[in-house]
Amino acid sequence: MKTTLPPISFVPYQQKDEPARRAAIAHVEFSLDGFSDNDIQVLGHLSDAVDLINPLYRDQFDPKSAVIEKLLGKLLEVASAEQKEKIDNYLTILRLQNSPYSLLPRKNHLLGLTNDEVSNLVKKAGGGSLETDLASVAHYFFEGLALPDKAGLYPDDMTEEEWKALGDEANVVNTTFHRANGKVVGALNEIKYRASLAPVIEHLIKARDLC
């Protein structure tokens, strides 16, 4: 019996002081034969829930991911064909990794455009708040960064003494820590992301009710 392999596309990406690499993406389709209308609706709700929750994972890993996505989305509107391809490739890798970093090796991905090119695109797209966004994330695009050990779960400058001072709170599951008025404090993810989780929960409830 002949097996048909799914089509594969290759997305190039570059990291500082590393050889150029390509991510292989298999485009998989599956038959819905034998699935009831309810089954298909359940799959739709689960797929929508995943699409809504992935940005939360990206935010947990590095809150600047959302700024990067918003900025590059605006630049796509005014970029040349060649520039669009590089921006699309960067965004694809970011969404695959759920962060601006890869785990192997543990480094950020470079955008593949020069600083001047991106600055000109920002001006072409209207400047203003986009210039502020670029200033806050430019190092992700052009510099070599090591993957931070604390990810987005703890303040970058948190010390070992501050960690110990948290006591039992440091071991509470599903907690993200941030700095408020100079002090490290924790927030349960279900509270921090309450508004963003509401539509995710709605899809899961609808999927459950269809079963």
What does this structure look like?
The chain has 211 residues and is mostly helical. The chain has two domains: 8-30 and 63-142, no CATH class; 160-210, no CATH class. The protein is built from eight helices and four strands; from the N terminus they run ββααααααββαα. The protein has helices at 37-61, 64-76, 81-97, 115-124, 129-142, 160-165, 189-192, 194-210; strands spanning 8-13, 21-26, 175-180, 183-188. Strands 1-2 form a two-stranded antiparallel sheet. β1 (8-13) and β2 (21-26) form a beta hairpin. It is globular and about 55 Å long.
Distance between the termini: 35 Å
Q: What composes the largest sheet?
A: 2 strands, antiparallel
Work out the oligomeric state of the chains in this entry. Answer: single chain
Global outline: globular
Comma- or semicolon-separated keywords:
2 domains, 211 residues, mainly alpha, 11% strand, two-stranded antiparallel sheet, single chain, globular, 8 helices
Secondary structure elements and their pairing?
Blueprint: E1 8-13, E2 21-26, H1 37-61, H2 64-76, H3 81-97, H4 115-124, H5 129-142, H6 160-165, E3 175-180, E4 183-188, H7 189-192, H8 194-210
Antiparallel strand pairs: 1-2, 3-4
Helix pairs in contact: 1-8, 2-3, 2-5, 4-5
Summarize this structure briefly.
With 211 residues, the chain is mostly helical. 50% of the residues lie in helices and 11% in strands. It folds into 2 domains: 8-30 and 63-142, no CATH class; 160-210, no CATH class.
